[in-house]
Amino acid sequence: MNPGPEDRALRRARWAITAQIAVVVSLLVAVAGAIAYGTLLSRQHAEADRALARTIQLGTGATPPGCVWLFTPFAHAPAGPPPSGMPLPSLAAAVPSPGDVHTERQPIGGMTYTIRVENRGGVVSQAFFEERYQIQDRSSLLFGLGVAEVLALLASVGCGRLLACRAIRPLADALRRQRTFVADASHELRAPLTRLHTRAQLLARRATGRDAEDLAHLVRGTRELGEVVEDLLLSAQACERPSLEPVELGLLAEEAVAAEAVRAGQGQVRLAVTRERRPYVVQGVPTALRRVLSALLDNALGHTPPGGSIEVCLGLPDDRHVELRIRDTGVGFPAADAERIFERFARGSEGDGRRFGLGLALVREVVTGHGGTIAAAARPGAGATFTLRLLRADPT
Question: Domain of 262: which CATH number?
């Protein structure tokens, strides 16, 4: 069985958690490495500065420590030819007055040196500290940090994957139980619904007059309920979205209005469809779109008082879309709630309280799954209008 959208979503969630843990661990190791490298660099520079200051203080009479050269106007130390490029006469201008000290770092002959220039009683001395071994220490530290980063990344991926699987397992179990429940419930409902539908058909064939019309609506309702159960069973088994097919939205609207005609009559609400005699074909799942229209009409009937009206209008706003509007003269709702009414389990304060129920949230999910949009507009006491827009299909 191919993995369904829930399984793919869980897999993506596991990898997302794993990646986040790996990124966090890598960043922590990188920050720790940067702190260690900065601390080492600062300490090396401080040691070089102290060594150069001490060398200038002792003068050429004392042998400088290894990797240090001292130059004065009269001599240099240690004895022997100095490295090429030393001293640097231009640095004398940096310490024009007695007591002035200047420190800088620059490459000379392919090697980096820390240079201290000091004016002691009018005598300018230059001390050079070769950073060969300090550079080697820093390179070794960077290599070690790189290895630690790679090992930490690998370890974090493994641990993150393990933790992600443990964190997601309860959700996966809940989804599996939900899928099993839907499949079992749908399977158990199929047989009694089939019997009910068959008996309703038999009664409709025997009835005459008004009873025959009412029983025809009952047959249609039981068939639609059976289609809902079948969709639930297929969804639980395959976990895939049903394939889209051309659907005549105008015909679905007329069927939905006819199915609610009795309820509208009992509530003294006028219910009508306004459309041109032309096809309004969209790409969709007939049973899903039928439930969308049923939910919207149920919502409108629940909030329209006796003497009111509900109008279903179909139109073609452009060449690419089919538009369906359900306009009622009910209690309406504040304009600020135009988005909130599509949230799950939000509840309204007018009518029978279902304006903000779960149905509208499911309606939006179905419409969005069809690549369409749905919007609501209303004012308190002035009714509400729900505008459904779907992509138009080839009428043929």
Answer: 3.30.565.10
